[in-house]
Amino acid sequence: MRAWFSGFRRVSKSAGLNLWIGGAITGALLLVAIISFYWTPHSLTRMNLRMRLQPPSHEFLLGTDQFGRDVLSQLMAGAQSALTIGVMAVLLGLVVGVTLGLLAAARGGWIEELTMRASDLLFAFPVVLLAIMFAAAMGAGTTNSMIAIGIHNIPIFARLTRGAAKSIWTRDFVMAARVGGRGTWDISLRHVLPNVLNILVVQATISFAIAILADAALSYLGLGTQPPTPTWGRMLKDAQTFMSQNPYLAIFPGLTIAVTVLGLNLFGDALRDMLDPRFARSR
Fold this sequence. Notes:
- The chain is mostly helical and about 280 residues long.
- The chain has one domain (about 70-280): MetI-like (MetI-like fold, Orthogonal Bundle), CATH 1.10.3720.
- The chain is built from eleven helices and no strands.
- The radius of gyration is 22 Å and the shape is elongated.
- It starts with a helix and ends with a helix.
């Protein structure tokens, strides 16, 4: 905790812009998603064709879509889907990938080789292609999007954990633990994992931003969360038909996705500076 607090003060002075902007955007996204569970300016499902394709106004701050629904309310509810899929996909990749990476680093030999080759195989399939495969086999939906994006994250965390853990296994304190009779998994959990946790936190932040982009792409293709649940990607898809009549339909979802990903990347950069020991020595 002292190291984290010291790193926080250090980053606040030297890389504070990334930290505060990224943290503010990330916090705002989380706050909007929570608020949308209990309140939105207008109904998410009620249609009013007399008010369709309205520009931003006092009543509808971001205008209305082709069915007369409030765009702001749709964006707020879309944050729920983006956060849910992003968090679950990152957790799936983190838990499975870190476990495989620790196992590969601890055991070595054919286990390490098999794990790395399996990771290379998964890298050959882009996340959208994985989602298409899942949709063809199991049908489109939120759960399948989570699984597809999560599987895509597994080799990322596995290779990252394995590479960092291999260097930790050569340290003196790990050798002392082995001499003291500690088991392989005991050493991995007590000594190796805490020392690679910093890079995993940074990677989780970056993977979260990528997961939101992937979810938007899958929703745009009709493979993600299905109607009537709003998603940012499907809002972009629906807006392309009405670009000449109301360009705001595409501008606002596009800006939301771009700002969210930018904020998460800035926050990840600040965390990297906070947790990287080399940054501390350079200051």
